[in-house]
UniProtKB/TrEMBL annotation:
Entry similarity comment: Belongs to the methylenetetrahydrofolate reductase family.
Protein name listed in UniProt: Uncharacterized protein
Organism: Helicoverpa armigera
Gene3D superfamilies: 3.20.20.220
PANTHER family: METHYLENETETRAHYDROFOLATE REDUCTASE, METHYLENETETRAHYDROFOLATE REDUCTASE (NADPH)
Entry's Gene Ontology cellular component terms: cytosol
Gene encoding the protein: HaOG203004
Alphabetical GO biological process terms: methionine biosynthetic process; tetrahydrofolate interconversion
Length: 272
C-alpha cells in the first residue's frame, strides 16, 4: 500500500473517522484481532528509553510492523537526545519503509544539552531542508493555551508543519475557541482532537498527572456520579465526541489507546 499523508487520509471521510495512538510495546496479536480499521496509527517515541542509539529500536520496529500489515503510520519524533546525523538516518529509513507522516514534539523531560535541536521549529526546518515535501508533519496543540502558544503554532505552520494534533481535553468550548483563533488568523491547517477514553476515575487521574492537563470540577463530579451509579465513563466520552461533531464540525478523532485496543474498538462500534 502506498504511503498517504494524514491530511489526505482525513479528507471527506464522513462525519466520523478515527486513528489510534499506540506505544511501541503494542502486541501484534492485538493489532491483528482488531475488527475496526483506523485511518492511521501513531507510534510514540521514547528517547530516554532507547537513547537514539541505532535504528534497531522499538518505535521503528513497531512502525515497520504496521507498514508490513498495510497500515498507515504517523511516526512520532522528539527533539530530546536527537542528533542531526541520527535524524537523517531515521528520515531515510522512513522513506525506505514508505512512511510519510511525522509528529514532531519536544519530548518528555527534554534536555537541550543532549540535542542538536533546541526547538521543534528547528527540527521541522531540518526535515524540510533534507526531504522537501515528502513528509506530512504534525505538531502538538493545546486547547485553552495562552496566546503566545497560538503564535508559536502559527509560526510552525509557516515553516512547514501541515496539521495540529491536540492533547486530550474534555472542554468542547475550549476546543472550539482554539479552532476559531486559527480561523481568524487565516490558517486552515487541519486540527485533529485527541481523545482519551478513560474508563475509571483512577485512569483519568493518572492521565491528568502524566500529561499535566486541567479538567473541570464538573467533569470529576460526573465521573464520580457515573461510578456510583455503575455507569461506564465511556458514556462521557461518547457525549464529548457527539458535541465536537455537532458544535465544532469535527469528524476525525485521534484516540490515545494506551494499547487497550479492544476497549477502544467497543467504544467505536457504539459510536458507529
Amino acid at each position: 500500500m502506498e504511503a498517504i499523508k494524514v491530511t489526505e487520509l482525513i479528507k471527506n471521510k464522513g462525519n466520523f473517522s478515527y486513528s489510534f495512538e499506540v506505544t511501541p510495546d503494542v502486541s501484534e496479536e492485538d493489532i491483528d484481532n482488531l475488527k475496526v480499521d483506523p485511518l492511521f496509527y501513531s507510534v510514540t517515541w521514547h528517547a530516554k528509553s532507547h537513547q537514539c542509539r541505532d535504528l534497531d529500536i522499538d518505535p521503528i520496529k513497531t512502525a515497520s510492523l504496521l507498514r508490513s500489515k498495510q497500515k498507515q503510520v504517523l511516526m512520532h519524533l522528539s527533539c530530546d537526545k536527537m542528533k542531526s546525523d541520527y535524524l537523517t538516518q531515521v528520515l531515510t529509513l522512513c522513506q525506505e519503509k514508505n512512511i510519510c507522516n511525522l509528529f514532531v514534539v519536544l519530548g518528555e523531560g527534554y534536555e537541550p544539552d543532549n540535542s542538536d535541536f533546541k526547538s521543534t521549529s528547528e527540527m521541522i526546518k531540518f526535515i524540510r531542508q533534507k526531504t522537501g515535501q515528502y513528509f506530512c508533519i504534525g505538531i502538538a496543540g493545546f486547547p485553552g493555551c495562552p496566546e503566545e502558544k497560538i503564535l508559536e503554532i502559527k509560526d510552525k505552520i509557516a515553516i512547514g508543519a501541515d496539521f495540529i494534533l491536540t492533547q486530550a481535553f474534555f472542554d468542547v468550548e475550549a476546543f472550539k475557541s482554539f479552532k476559531d483563533r486559527f480561523t481568524r488568523m487565516g490558517i486552515d491547517a487541519p486540527i485533529i482532537p485527541g481523545v482519551f477514553p478513560f474508563e475509571t476515575l483512577k485512569q483519568l487521574e493518572g492521565f491528568i498527572r502524566m500529561c499535566r492537563i486541567k479538567v473541570s470540577d464538573d467533569l470529576l463530579e460526573a465521573v464520580n456520579d457515573n461510578e456510583k451509579m455503575d455507569k461506564p465513563c465511556t458514556e462521557l466520552i461518547k457525549q464529548l465526541i457527539e458535541n465536537l461533531r455537532s458544535k465544532c464540525t469535527t469528524s476525525h478523532f485521534h484516540f490515545f489507546t494506551i494499547n487497550k485496543l479492544e476497549n477502544i474498538q467497543k467504544l467505536i462500534e457504539q459510536i458507529n
